[in-house]
């Protein structure tokens, strides 16, 4: 999925948890996280003490057009000031911290956040540094720990990936899982009359092609063929296409047979012509001998 799916005429979703990036190191990673936020309907970003300062041109590049989030991002000198007005916070980490806190997944966080936001609370998601993640003291400021079912032998996610997975669960819940598009429903489903006419057509041509070699097995074979097409859920357009395919195969066979017959006819004609030439040559030799 690329920028080809972007429609800038549509309104952005509002609300959702606040994403708090704690001391991110690279503008590229901030931009990737912002892009993931834009993909999945999160618009409020807070950045705590970014290492490379702010604004960051590399963040703009990697955000790939999610400029609104960057333009409205808030910068804080420390974590405490960044979360002071929040009511509920989840700290994202891949490591066990030895704390008596509830550990939840991204889907459970989405449900918890949705319920609290509906009740008027402000919810935040803490995501730490690329190299070390959140410090244990920072995790202690959160209400719950959020983690993902990743490969324990390689549990390192960069900022963009972590935000994308969590934001995806949020937006799936908030949007009711609605997909952005469905295949167009352009053609009506074939009725039984259409289907029966096609069965007559294909079975007739199969009979002509000597497909049914065993009279005893023919009824079972016909039932199997019909059941194949019943399982597909054919439209009228599908039926029309199938009729055309069978007709083309039959006509193609006829053309091949005609070409073969014509070729054989030419070969026989050449043979006859050669034989006549041989006979004619013999008479000339004989006549010539007589004349000498």
From TrEMBL:
Q: Which GO terms describe its molecular function?
A: methyltransferase activity
What EC class does the entry list?
transferase
Keyword annotations of the record: Cytoplasm, Methyltransferase, S-adenosyl-L-methionine, Transferase, tRNA processing
Compartments in which it is found = Cytoplasm
Principal subcellular localization: cytoplasm
Task: Specify where the region named Disordered lies, as residue ranges.
Answer: 261-292
Q: What catalytic activity does the UniProt entry give for this protein?
A: uridine(32) in tRNA + S-adenosyl-L-methionine = 2'-O-methyluridine(32) in tRNA + S-adenosyl-L-homocysteine + H(+); cytidine(32) in tRNA + S-adenosyl-L-methionine = 2'-O-methylcytidine(32) in tRNA + S-adenosyl-L-homocysteine + H(+)
GO BP terms in the entry: methylation
Q: Which InterPro entries match?
A: Alpha/beta_knot_MTases (IPR029028), RNA_MeTrfase_TrmJ/LasT (IPR004384), SpoU_MeTrfase (IPR001537), tRNA_m1G_MTases_N (IPR029026)
The similarity comment for this entry is: Belongs to the class IV-like SAM-binding methyltransferase superfamily. RNA methyltransferase TrmH family.
Subunit notes for this chain? Homodimer.
Query: What's the protein here called?
Result: tRNA (cytidine/uridine-2'-O-)-methyltransferase TrmJ
Taxonomically, what lineage is the organism? Bacteria, Pseudomonadati, Pseudomonadota, Alphaproteobacteria, Hyphomicrobiales
């Amino acid at each position: 999925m690329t920028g080809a799916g972007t429609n800038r005429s549509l309104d952005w979703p509002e609300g959702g948890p606040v994403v708090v990036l704690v001391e991110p190191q690279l503008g590229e990673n901030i931009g990737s996280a912002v892009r993931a936020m834009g993909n999945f309907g999160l618009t409020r970003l807070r950045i705590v003490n970014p290492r490379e300062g702010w604004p960051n041109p590399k963040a703009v590049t990697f955000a790939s057009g999610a400029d609104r989030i960057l333009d409205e991002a808030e910068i804080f000198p420390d974590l405490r000031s960044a979360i002071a007005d929040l009511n509920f916070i989840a700290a994202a980490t891949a490591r066990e911290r030895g704390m008596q806190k509830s550990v939840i997944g991204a889907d459970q966080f989405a449900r918890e956040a949705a319920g609290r936001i509906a009740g008027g609370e402000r919810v935040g998601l803490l995501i730490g540094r690329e190299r070390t993640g959140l410090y244990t003291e920072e995790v202690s400021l959160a209400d719950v720990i959020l983690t993902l079912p990743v490969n324990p032998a390689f549990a390192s996610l960069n900022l963009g990936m972590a935000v994308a997975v969590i934001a995806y669960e949020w937006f799936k819940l908030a949007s009711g899982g609605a997909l952005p598009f469905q295949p167009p429903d352009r053609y009506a489903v074939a009725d039984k009359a259409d289907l029966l006419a096609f069965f007559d057509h294909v079975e007739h041509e199969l009979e002509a092609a000597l497909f049914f070699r065993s009279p005893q097995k023919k009824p079972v074979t016909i039932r199997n063929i019909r059941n194949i097409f019943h399982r597909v859920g054919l439209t009228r357009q599908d039926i029309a296409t199938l009729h055309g395919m069978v007709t083309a195969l039959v006509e193609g066979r006829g053309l091949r047979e005609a070409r073969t017959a014509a070729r054989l006819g030419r070969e026989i004609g050449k043979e006859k012509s050669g034989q006549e030439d041989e006979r004619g040559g013999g008479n000339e030799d004989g006549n010539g001998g007589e004349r000498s």
